[in-house]
Design brief:
Keywords: Membrane, Transmembrane, Transmembrane helix. This protein is mostly helical and 102 residues long. It has one domain. It has four helices and no strands. α2 packs parallel to α4 and α3 packs antiparallel against α4.
Length: 102
Amino acid sequence: MPHMLGPAESEPFRLTLNTDGRPHTRENILAVGTFLVGVLAFILGFVVSAHVVATALGIIGFAGGLFAQYVSVTTPQRSIIIMGIVASFVGALLGIAHGGFS
């Protein structure tokens, strides 16, 4: 039990989407892109005059998120993608409720 005698070394906090140790550039870009589009659609969904943009971004984010979920590799990527899909869906619904594409 030599680990009990010495001082405990803690690992520094690292935020990464590559928990398997391999780089996944395309999947990371899709995950973060889905999240950003979803947040933008969600925010614009509350602006009544931006209903067309919110609806379009919501649909794009939702469809892109489904593809990103299909090709994702790690669990953190999937978590970010699901948050983006939900935000896109809510943004699209708010945009539709405020007038949709008309």
